Every structure is written in C-alpha cells, then in structure tokens.
Amino acid sequence: MPPRRFAGDRLVVATHNRGKLVEIAELLRPYVREVVGADALGLPEPEETGDSFAANAALKARAA
Asked: Is 16 within 8 Å of 37 (Cβ atoms)?
C-alpha cells in the first residue's frame, strides 16, 4: 500500500517530549504548517508498556 499524502494544516505528533517535538517540527517545517504535541491537545500521556520502541510509539499514536 503506498503512503498517504498529508493534506491538512496541522499534524499531531503523539509525544509529550518537548525536545522530540521541536526536532520533528524542524524536519517537517517545509511540508506542514503546524506541528503540535499531544500535550497541546490535553491528551493524557499513556504508559509505555510495550516491549519495544515501535510498540510504545504505536501505543502513543493510538492514544492520540
């Protein structure tokens, strides 16, 4: 399945880590008008109970 093209103005990055959010926002600046973290939307920070980085990322994405 080919990747979907992002068509919105705002992208939610499912992280509460400010440093990570800034780094990702810098990388996406040419493509996305606004990048916001989960905390900006009042989303709770899920427990990282996965057994890998990818599993924890999936938990955060589902929570967002």
From this structure: yes
